[in-house]
Design a protein that fits this description.
about 180 residues, five-stranded antiparallel β-sheet, single chain, alpha+beta
Amino acid sequence: MKVSLYPRPRRRAFSLMEMLVALGISSILMATLMSLTLFCSRSFVAIGNYMDLNKASLNALDGLTRDIRGAYSLKTFATNQLVFLDVNSNQLTFAWSPVSGNLTRSLGGTSEVLLDNCDYLLFDISQRTPVTNGVMGFYTATNNAALCKMVSVSWRCSRTILGQKLNTESVQTAKIVMRN
């Protein structure tokens, strides 16, 4: 019998069982990676929506505050609409439409959208009435626009992620005192 210094190489390969185990482990790893990727991307979109909603809400609140504090008087009041007169007797209107979800500002025939995707908005007015012990406070103006000294506004805006309204809400509440 002849012995060779270099033995014939054995053929090596995965057995069927080894292949199934490797395929199962890699499937579990891929599913975990995909779910983590989906979660991270959804969170990234939600944070972006929060930032956009907060920026839009703060800009709208700044505009409302500037215009209401500079208004001369409140002409008419509704829970979704305020009509002011400015010092030049121009009519300034803030109106919210529940159908479109937009809060619009109208002055002198021009209008601009202050907020969009607004699910809820409520205006309320208060008056300043002295009580018997001489303390001043704000009390409901009972829909009498002429007595208005403070406007309360509250709104909630939201957006959708992948076609569903999730937790992307921005809630703002403010009390704005008129200077007049």
